[in-house]
Structures are given as C-alpha cells and as structure tokens.
Amino acid sequence: MVIIIGAGISGLSAAHHLPGEYLVLEKENVIGGLSTQYTPPDGGDYRFDFGGHYFHFKDKGEIKKYVERFGRFREFRRKSAVYMLDRYIPYPLQYHLSYLPAPLKKAALGEILARKKRGTHNLQEYLEHNFGPTLFSLFFKPFLNKYYGTGLADLAADMDKGSIPVPDEKSAVAGYRGKGFSQTGYNPVFYYPENSLEDFIETYAAGIQKGRHIKLNEEVVEIDIDKKKVKTGNNTYEYETLINTMPLKHLLKAINQNARFPSHEKLRHISTLVCNIVLKKRRKRLHWVYLPETQFPFYRAGYYPYRGITVTYLEKTIKTMVGEAANRDILFDEILFTLKKLKFIESKDDILYFDARLIPVSYILFDREWHKVVPPTLTDLKRYGIHSTGRYGAWNYTSMSDDIKAAIETVKTIGR
Ligand SMILES: Cc1cc2nc3c(=O)[nH]c(=O)nc-3n(C[C@H](O)[C@H](O)[C@H](O)COP(=O)(O)OP(=O)(O)OC[C@H]3O[C@@H](n4cnc5c(N)ncnc54)[C@H](O)[C@@H]3O)c2cc1C
Questions:
Q1: Which of the listed residues 26, 80, 143, 373 has the most CB atoms within 10 Å of its CB?
Q2: 176 inside domain
Q3: Is any ligand 1 atom within 6 A of the Cβ of residue 245?
Q4: Among 341, 364, 387, which residue terminates a domain?
C-alpha cells in the first residue's frame, strides 16, 4: 500500500498516476493545500486564493496539455512593475533603466558594462556583481531583505534559480535608451483557470473517490520508519511506500528515528501574511507590483482574476500572527496607506472587505546549510521507502506545474 501525505496539488498528482492501491491522508477538512481557495470565517460568499496563484508552463508544454484535460485556462501576458521613487517602473527594472533619475541610471548602466566574470559565494555577492552596487542598494537589497527577512550574505548564490534575469549589455543599454522590454524571466506568459483555482482542483480530484482514497482530517503526527507505520490523531496505517508532501521539516520532526537524519531545525523558511482585499473597482491593469521601499510593510501587491468582484492582495513576511501582527486596525492602516500610494484606491471607501491569512511555511531559505542537508536527506529517505516531493516536501522553490511534474516523476521512480 502506498500512503500519500497531503492532498495538495503534489499529493493529488501522485494519486492520479499511481496504478495500485493508495491512500491520501490530509490534515485539513478540504483538499488542495495552497493550490485552492478558502472562505474567510466571516467572509460571506468570498473565495480567496492564497496570494496570486498563476500557472507557469515555461518549458513545460506537456504539463500544460495535461492540466488542460481538467479545465480551461485563460492566458495572460505579464504586466508587472516595481513601485519606487514615487513611480511605476516596468519589471524587470534592470531592462528599464531609463525610468530612473539621470545620475542613478548612468551609474547603474556604467556598473553593468564594467562587470568582469568572477565567481560569487553568496546571494549578496551574486547580486552586487551581476547588477552592480547601484541597482543592488536601490532595489535588490531592500526588497530581498524585506522578503526573506534575513541578511543576503547568509543565502546561497544560486538561490534565485534563474527567476531574476541577469541583464546582458545590449539589453541594459536598450533599457537605458528607453527601449526596455518586459517579456523575459521565468513567467512572461502565465495562466489561470477559466473559472477559479478551486474549480480546477475539485475537477482534478474528482477522479479520486473521496472517502475511499482521500481521508480528510487525518494529520500525520508520527512515523515509524522501521515498522513502516504512520500515526495520525485517529489511526495507525501501514505502508510499503510513503509519498510525502508535507514540509520536509515537519516530516523529519515526525519520524521516530529522526536522530538518523539532520535536525529539522537546520531547515529554514519564512512565513507569509497574505491580505486579500475586495475593492469597489480596479484602477490598475497590473498583475503584480514589487515594493522594495521600507515605507511599505508589504513586499508585493497584485491582482488575480476573479469573477464578478475585484480582489487585490498584499503580501508581507512575518514570523507569527500574534501581538501587533494580529491587530486588524494596524493592518488596515497599512493596507490603506499602501493601496492609496499605489493608486489602487482613492479612499478607504473603496475597500469593501479584507481578510488576512498566515501561510506558516511559504518560502524556504536556501542558506548554506540547504546544499549540505536537503539533497542527501531526500536520498536517505528513499532508502526507507519515503519519497518526499512537492515544493515543501522536497524543500525547494517550485511552482504548481513543477510540483505536478515532480509528482509524476516520483510515481515513475516507485514503479521502477
Ligand atoms: C504566497 C505564495 C504565492 C505563490 N504563488 C504561486 C503562483 O503564482 N504560481 C505557482 O505555480 N505557484 C505559486 N506558489 C507555490 C505553490 O503554492 C506551491 O508550489 C504548491 O501549492 C505546492 O503544492 P504541494 O501540494 O506540494 O504543497 P501544499 O499545497 O502545501 O499541500 C500539502 C498538503 O499537505 C497537507 N499536510 C501538511 N501537513 C500534514 C500532515 N502532518 N498530515 C497530513 N497532511 C498534511 C496540507 O494540509 C496540504 O494540503 C505560491 C506559494 C506561495 C506561498
């Protein structure tokens, strides 16, 4: 028997491809994990995403074809920007230097053209070297400090996984002369289910009969890797193979024999507060905006498609939902300030409703320990019949389509 921990997009994708007997154990009373929508406790009929969840299919045409079997998707050409120095600058900033004040754009271009090839040892060195000190201190440092909530010299140089396009000289010069272009990076085009993310995930899961194959409200709390048993609050289950999609950190903690693995405390991550805000009307045709300046407590603002109403979201990195972070009045003032500055609203009357939800494990941190700890641990777990996959199971930076692909690969590995 194969047991799958978690009914998010990774667990469901594994279930779809497993030929034999399996059981999915999901701790919540709903399926979908982060790849669905939720109703806030007092939210009436509102259904919100956990932030903006668009599908990216770059270099993954086969995954696009596969998900299109479960629903129709709308295609979007990315319109995103950086808001700083009281102006919108099209994203990516490094290709739009003409939007900067004269001394800054001159300095930034000069530094890009003067780069020499050399190795870098951490994220700070990597960014300073590839983008120059001006762009680094103007954008990357304040933005990423806010986002990761940690010093960049602590993080690995390859942390960005290609999501921050390094400018070549020709494009930087073109951007300086006002001929910037935006359709670069990992997601110049992206997709959203025609109806909603929840609708897609429900259709996706429909092939798996609830009750028989998916058990809700079953939180895995303990795993005996020698006896091959998982324990939830209610039951104990035996397995031959375990596919795990809960955060690797939590998996290691739950294993009885965890002294055989590195401490779960070595795995670092951030937590994200996502504020979903219903507006009277949409005033900006942007999908998302990066907010590097410290005047904004949020690092990103955006919209996702929603039928009938306008929803904007704001994201910030916080540690826990206690004290000031839990104070709705403070949060409302922060939202109001940010949305007014961005010209998403004119006054507080434009806000019809807001909800804030904490995602406790949202982005993992690629610090120096990551390389030493994560890949060898995933290999060791396989020796015990445990395949840990998905963004959090494999403790990585991935998208929903990466997770689907990885789950399919995982099932193939088991079959071999
Ligand atoms: C703010 C934010 C924005 C994002 N935006 C995008 C985007 O635009 N596009 C994109 O492609 N991706 C985006 N992502 C990434 C995307 O959300 C993930 O890649 C994807 O949802 C991961 O799916 P998963 O099934 O691996 O994990 P999850 O969705 O986390 O699913 C894991 C499941 O396991 C369950 N579980 C956890 N612990 C236990 C336990 N002990 N016992 C039983 N069940 C358990 C959980 O309840 C959950 O249902 C974003 C992520 C964040 C945080």
A1: 26
A2: no
A3: yes
A4: 364
Q: Would residue 99 count as lying in a domain? A: yes
Give the pLDDT of residue 161: 63
- C-alpha distance across the termini of the chain, in Å: 16
Which atom in ligand 1 lies closest to the alpha carbon of residue 34?
A: 29
The owner of tokens 């120095």 is: 85
What pTM value is reported for the model? 0.95
Q: What Rg do the C-alpha atoms of the chain give, in angstroms?
A: 22
- Gap between the Cα atoms of 247 and 395, Å rounded: 7
Distance separating alpha carbons of residues 233 and 230, to the nearest angstrom: 10
Is 220 near ligand 1, meaning CB less than 6 Å away?
yes
Is the Cβ atom of 52 under 6 angstroms away from ligand 1? yes
Do 280 and 359 reside in the same domain of the chain? yes
CB-ligand 1 contact for 362 (6 Å cutoff): yes
Residues in the chain predicted with pLDDT less than 70, given as ranges, are 159-162, 180-186, 209-211, 416
The residues, any chain, with a CB within 8 Å of residue 18's CB and separated by 6 or more, are 2, 4, 411, 414
- Residues sharing a CB contact under 8 Å with residue 115, sequence separation 6 or more, in sequence order: 129, 130, 132
The single-letter DSSP state of residue 57 is: -
Instruction: Kindly give the distance from the C-alpha atom of residue 28 to the centroid of ligand 1, in angstroms, as a whole number.
Output: 12
**Ligand 1, atom nearest to 272 Cα:** 1
Domain count, the chain: 3
Residue range(s) defining the domain that contains residue 117: 92-168
Q: Do 106 and 27 belong to one domain?
A: no
- Record the tokens describing residue 84, joined without a space: 């700083």
